[in-house]
Structure formats: structure tokens, C-alpha cells
Write a structure and sequence with these properties.
This protein has 340 residues and is an alpha/beta fold. 51% of the residues lie in helices and 11% in strands. Bound molecules: 1,4-dihydronicotinamide adenine dinucleotide and 1,3-dihydroxyacetonephosphate.
Length: 340
């Protein structure tokens, strides 16, 4: 029988809410930090998170704007803010923190723009207090389904197998199964790069293409994710697993996906600025596309799908012209041999 833990969740977004409430259902003690004062007020008043309003927060779950209250004297800290906020928030946690060293659990997906670092690398750079280590949890998991207790399977990844096993055992429940791996590079790259391909899949939906086009995008997208991933030190088998192919499939086909939605609206002709202004949730693939283009140049990896997404989002290219360009690239062997 697992001892119940004191857990601080940083961010009341949809994913932090869904995974946190799952841990509460398992008997753990939960408090949340939220930077937005108005969101704190609304959640306290209604006990509902309007980003994912399918369940109430139980009365014993504390929602606070005081970071030191939420992060001090905890066994586990869950980092659930968007990638663009991860560095700043990690630095603040490091400054606010008191008590024995907790374990850090990263559940965000993305590549920081500028540094081009993965989320666990950003957190590690900013947290100098003696934390016990960091585990990233990823996989095909829309918060909208996890919060309704629909079956979901995740992976806990860490360089330290004892820590990934600890998180695996912490999270396992009747409807949530967790595998573990030491390939944190592959897990974080798979979870981040699939968002770019999901935008491509959405663009295809938006212009009115069918299932053939989407299957092709998923497979060719998987190929370029794997090429970049191998160049960056990930293991090939990780990309055919839950955090690779699994998350790529769910994000490209799901009606819940924020990234696929951004693509669909682009495909219908809206501008990126207009789409983002109307959204209240983060679509990580937007920043990740910019980062991936830089990484592909650094590592000399050809990534035509990512480039096409970049051109539609940032160069206002016509999606139909971009599809035409992709279809008319030089004839090639399909060879999935992973030369880069
Ligand atoms: N929503 C989902 O189903 C899943 C999301 N993720 C990942 O989890 C991360 C968070 O995503 P969501 O929960 O969907 O986000 P969300 O858009 O639902 O909420 C984001 C949260 O971060 C806070 N936030 C925004 N900017 C901030 C800042 N500058 N400083 C501090 N806090 C800030 C917001 O107030 C909010 O609490 C992303 O990296 C996403 O890719 C991963 C798996 C599933
Ligand atoms: O990562 C996710 C599902 O595994 C969430 O994807 P979206 O951010 O596109 O909704």
C-alpha cells in the first residue's frame, strides 16, 4: 500500500487539473498554484475549472497564488505550465521553496524557443535547490478524457530508473496504466514534435482533404520526428511507442487537440494571430515549430512537413500551394532507413 503523498501542482491548466484530480482520487493530498489572480478567484468560488469543467475540485484541494505555500514541504512537485513559462516558473519555485527535497514531475510538452532545450532540461537548469530528480510523464492523454476516467496509458521517463518506477507506481490506477523508460530524450522529443505534425494534420482537415492525406502526414511526420530524434540522441524504439506513434496518432485525429484545431483553422484561411487571440488554451506546436526548424538546421535533418507548417503559420503561405509543393518534391525511395 503506497503512502499518501503531499503534492504541489504548478498550474491549473487542463492537464494539471486532470492528472492532479486522478492523484487525489488515489488518496494523495493536493494543492495548486495558479499565477492568474482572476482564475484563482473563479476556481475558489465555483470549485470548477472553466478550461475543463467536467468535475469539481474537492473541498480539501487548495488553490493558491502563493507559490511558497504550494511548493514547500511537498513530496512531489508537478510542473504543468506551458513551455514558454517553464523557465520563469522553475526559477521562482527554486527561490520560493522550503523543506526536504521533493521529486519533480514534468508533464508539459515543448521545446523552449531560443535555448532549444527540452522541458526537463529547462527545469534542471533553473532548480539548484537539492531536488531529488526529475521524471517526465508523457503519452497519448487528452485531459478531457483523463478527467472522465477514460482508459489512458502513459510513460514515466527518467535517467534514474528508480525515480521513473516510483512515478509509475504513484500514478497507476484502474483506468490509468503507466510504463517506464530511461529514454527521457526520446520521450520528450516525441511528445513535443508530434504537435507540429498535428498542426499539419489539422491544416489538411481545414482545406478539406481526407483520411488518405492524414495517414500520409502521420507516417511521413513520424519519419522526420525519428530522424531528428536520433540525431539528438534518442533511441529509435521510443518513437514507435506510446510517447512517439501513440501521441502522434491521438493528437492528429482527436477532436480535443488544440494543435490540430490551430491547423484546421489555418486550413480554413484564418491567420495564426487571429486563431491564437480567440483561444484560451495553449497550442505548444506553434512555438515548437519555430524551435524544430532551428534544430533541423543545427542537426542537418530534412523536415519537409515541419517546414510546410512553418510556412503556413509564419510566412502566410497558401496551404494548397504548400501541399502542391510537398506532392511535387523529387521522386524518392520510401526507404525508412534512418540516414539523416
Ligand atoms: N491539455 C492536455 O490534454 C495536455 C496538455 N499537455 C501539456 O501540458 C502543458 C500545459 O497544457 P494545458 O494544461 O493544456 O494548458 P492550459 O492552456 O489548459 O493551461 C495553462 C496553465 O498555465 C498557466 N500559465 C499560462 N501562462 C503562464 C505563465 N506565464 N506563468 C505561469 N503560469 C502560466 C495558465 O494560467 C494555466 O493554468 C502543455 O505543455 C501541454 O502541451 C500534455 C498532455 C495533455
Ligand atoms: O499532448 C496532448 C495529448 O497527448 C494534448 O495535445 P493538444 O495540446 O494538441 O491538445
Amino acid at each position: 500500500m503506497m503512502q499518501h503523498k503531499q503534492i504541489g501542482v504548478i498550474g491549473t491548466g487542463s492537464w494539471g487539473t486532470a492528472l492532479g484530480l486522478h492523484l487525489h482520487d488515489l488518496g494523495h493530498h493536493l494543492s495548486y498554484w495558479e499565477h492568474d489572480q482572476e482564475r484563482v478567484r473563479r476556481i475558489r468560488e465555483t470549485r470548477v475549472n472553466d478550461l475543463i469543467p467536467y468535475r469539481e475540485f474537492p473541498e480539501d484541494v487548495r488553490i493558491s497564488q502563493e507559490l511558497n505555500e504550494v511548493v514547500s514541504y511537498k513530496d512531489i512537485l508537478i510542473f504543468a505550465v506551458p513551455s514558454h513559462a517553464m523557465r520563469h516558473v522553475s526559477r521562482e519555485v527554486n527561490l520560493s521553496f522550503k523543506g526536504p527535497a521533493p521529486l519533480i514531475l514534468n508533464i508539459s510538452k515543448g521545446i523552449e524557443s531560443g535555448s532549444l532545450l527540452r522541458m526537463s532540461e529547462v527545469v534542471r537548469e533553473e532548480t539548484h535547490y537539492p531536488f531529488r530528480g526529475i521524471v517526465t510523464v508523457s503519452g497519448p492523454s487528452h485531459a478531457e478524457e483523463v478527467i472522465k476516467n477514460q482508459p489512458t496509458v502513459l510513460v514515466a521517463a527518467s535517467d534514474d530508473e528508480n525515480l521513473s518506477e516510483e512515478v509509475q507506481l504513484l500514478l497507476m490506477g484502474d483506468r490509468l496504466r503507466v510504463y517506464r523508460t530511461d529514454d527521457i530524450v526520446g520521450v520528450e522529443l516525441g511528445g513535443s514534435l508530434k504537435n507540429v505534425v498535428a498542426i499539419a494534420a489539422g491544416i489538411s482537415d481545414g482545406v478539406g482533404f481526407g483520411d488518405n492525406a492524414k495517414a500520409a502526414l502521420i507516417v511521413r511526420g513520424a519519419h522526420e520526428i525519428m530522424k531528428l530524434g536520433l540525431a539528438m540522441g534518442a533511441r529509435p524504439e521510443t518513437f514507435s511507442g506510446l510517447t512517439g506513434m501513440g501521441d502522434l496518432i491521438v493528437t492528429c485525429i482527436s477532436r480535443h487537440s488544440r494543435n490540430r484545431y490551430v491547423g484546421e483553422e489555418l486550413g480554413k484561411g484564418r491567420t495564426l494571430e487571429d486563431i491564437l487571440k480567440s483561444m484560451n488554451m495553449v497550442a505548444e506546436g506553434v512555438i515548437t515549430t519555430q524551435s524544430v526548424i532551428k534544430l533541423s538546421e543545427t542537426y542537418g535533418v530534412d523536415m519537409p512537413v515541419a517546414q510546410a507548417v512553418y510556412q503556413v503559420m509564419f510566412d502566410h503561405a497558401d496551404p494548397l500551394k504548400i501541399v502542391n509543393d510537398l506532392m511535387n518534391r523529387d521522386p524518392k525511395s520510401e526507404s525508412l532507413v534512418l540516414e539523416i
